[in-house]
Predict the structure of Single-stranded DNA-binding protein.
Amino acid sequence: MKVNEAIIEVMKDVGAVGKGDRNTFHNFNFRGIDAVVNALSPAMKRHGVTVHPSQIIARDYEHYTTDKNKQGTACRLVVEYTITGPEGDVIHCVAAGESADTGDKATPKAMSVTFRTALLQTFALPTTETDPDAQVMERQAPRPVTGEASNLPDFRGMMQSATTPDEKNAIWNQAKEAGAPVKFLDELREIGS
């Protein structure tokens, strides 16, 4: 069986992988690397499919300091993966990922994101959620954004005083609604973590 045929057999066996993990800070569900690998691994073994990173195509690091004076690293990667079938033939896929960490985990986190993305795209794993095209969204005219964090209410102080994930999420959403720039929203996320 050729690699592309084996991939199709894995797809038939696995089906949907739901978004069972939760990001409480930004209030959304996601499919983590463990859920994806756990769903795929038995079928990949059964059909003789392996996946491994074969080349880091691009790598970028950015060092930053949080408002709490912690040193952090952001890592952005583009990785090529090799998918091998039971006959030894291969195909390649490329996936991008990024992460940030104030410890020593920025690169491993980014590798997990690229691996998860490569698997999701290669095996076209659906979720159990409603198709986003099933809903229609009406847009308002865009609000003017000043780009100046100094013109915003004291969201930093509010975030520092917040004690629950729900409070932090509400403050972040208020800042976003007020037109806070992305850099400021990232700073608020770091304060709340």
